[in-house]
Amino acid sequence: QVQLAESGGGLVQPGGSLRLSCAASGFSFRSYDMRWYRQAPGKERELVAHITSVGNPTNYADSVKGRFTISRDNAKRTVYLQMNSLKPEDTAVYYCMIPSLSYWGQGTQVTVSS
């Protein structure tokens, strides 16, 4: 069955970096666009980044443009989110998802704090 497994979250200081990974299985990964979302406490889930099946183009929320980069490795069936210059307001649970299947991973917690 379809599975998405996020990893790479954790606690990081402001200005630091993290790379999230989402390992996919159970479907033809290379045929599907992928997205990263996040949900901060008390807030609605927010689209962070989108990548097409072939890796280009990509789209980002205004709040992360220039700091975050979404990428994918179709051979490894994995989508990544490189997060640089992290801010406390980036604190959230980050989810990868398949937009055309409306399928979500379980999420990984990112906490930005000194």
| Percent range for β-strand residues | over 45%
**Biggest sheet statistics:** 7 strands, mixed
Indicate the overall shape.
globular
List the helices and strands in order: EEEEEEEEEEE
Low-confidence regions:
none
Strand count: 11
Radius of gyration: 13 Å
Helix content: under 10%
Tally of separate helices = 0
Give me the oligomer status: single chain
Could you walk me through the main structural features you see in this protein, from its secondary elements to its overall organization?
With 114 residues, the protein is an all-beta fold. 0% of the residues lie in helices and 50% in strands. It contains no helices and 11 strands. It has strands at 3-7, 10-12, 18-25, 34-39, 46-51, 58-60, 68-73, 78-83, 92-98, 103-104, 108-112. The strands form 2 sheets. Strands 2, 4, 5, 6, 9, 10 and 11 form a 7-stranded mixed β-sheet that branches. A 4-stranded antiparallel β-sheet has the order 1-3-8-7, with no helix packed on it. Strand 9 (92-98) and strand 10 (103-104) form a beta hairpin. The mean pLDDT is 97.
Summarize the structure.
The chain is an all-beta fold and 114 residues long. It has strands at residues 3-7, 10-12, 18-25, 34-39, 46-51, 58-60, 68-73, 78-83, 92-98, 103-104, 108-112. The protein is globular.
